[in-house]
Each structure stands twice: as structure tokens, then as C-alpha cells.
Amino acid sequence: MRLFIAIPVPADLHRYCRQLQSRFDGLKNVNDFHLTLQFLGDDIENPDQIIDALSQIKFGPFEIEMGDALPFGPKNEPRGVWIECKENSALNQLAGQVRQTLAPLGYESDKPFRAHITLGRYKLPPKINPKKVSGTPHYFRVDHFELIQSHLEEGGPRYKVLQKFLVNQG
Description:
Helices cover 17% and strands 41% of the residues. By secondary structure, it is α+β, with helices and mostly antiparallel strands. It has a single domain (2-166), classed as Cyclic phosphodiesterase (Cyclic Phosphodiesterase, Chain: A), CATH 3.90.1140.10. The strands form two sheets. The chain has a five-stranded antiparallel sheet, covered by helices on one side. Strands 3-1-8-9 form a four-stranded antiparallel sheet, covered by helices on one side. A hairpin with a 2-residue loop joins strand 8 (144-153) and strand 9.
């Protein structure tokens, strides 16, 4: 099972994300927008231990500010485009709690947390390097995060929410 932990982008902001996608030629667009807190791996057989651990995380509601859309990966051969999200202490704290909670179970992240929402990936490097597109500030409230199963398919990944973790201030 391919699993990751993410904060979903509310449906009312999907149109805005699609508008930004349209500004980048050759992008294989994603249809489900989220901010990944941690990718867990491709071969997870039983998520129950993960669910139990994540259920212990306590956090309060907070807001995320979406910023500019820009390419990621090597400068001359970008792999895709994402929307940068302004990091804030509540978001960083939640991401840190997720990572600390799962590390004893063997799910250590090899990459530092960087708040972003992927708009799409390039199958082939674009002929002309894409430029940053300035986004207008958009905000959304976070009151939960999710454990998501990802199925990689020809048309792109398909997602299934396995568990939702609601605000829990203790």
C-alpha cells in the first residue's frame, strides 16, 4: 500500500489551483490538491499502527496562506510545478509532530519539510523553462489532516482517504 499524510485543499480553492495549472504548458495536471506532511512509502501492509500513532497528535486549527506557483526540481529540467505555502509555526509544529510520532515506527523522512501544493509534473522536461507565476493570496483553514492511500494509474494517481484526524487540542 502506498501511503502519505496530507492536509487537503478545500474544494472551493480547486478552481484557483486549476487556473494556475493552465499557466504551465506540458504539465501533467493533478486533480486532487493537498499539502503533503510526510510520504510513508510504497509497501505498507497494515496501516493500523500508523493510525493509532497519528490519533495521539494534538493540534489546534490554523490557516495556511497559498503563495506563488513555481517549478521544482533542477533549474534546467524541472520535474513539476507547485504552489508555495507560507510556512507558519502551527503548520511547522504539525509537520514536526507527524514526523516525530512516526519515526519510532520506522517512518523517518529523508527530506526536510517544505510546505507546498503540487499542481502537476512534467513527463518530459519542458522545452522552455517555466517561470514563476505570482499568485494572489488565498487562505484556507486547517481543522484536520488525513492518511491517504495512493494508487498510481495511467491517468495519474487516484487517492483514497483511509483516516481523517480532526483538531484535538487535548
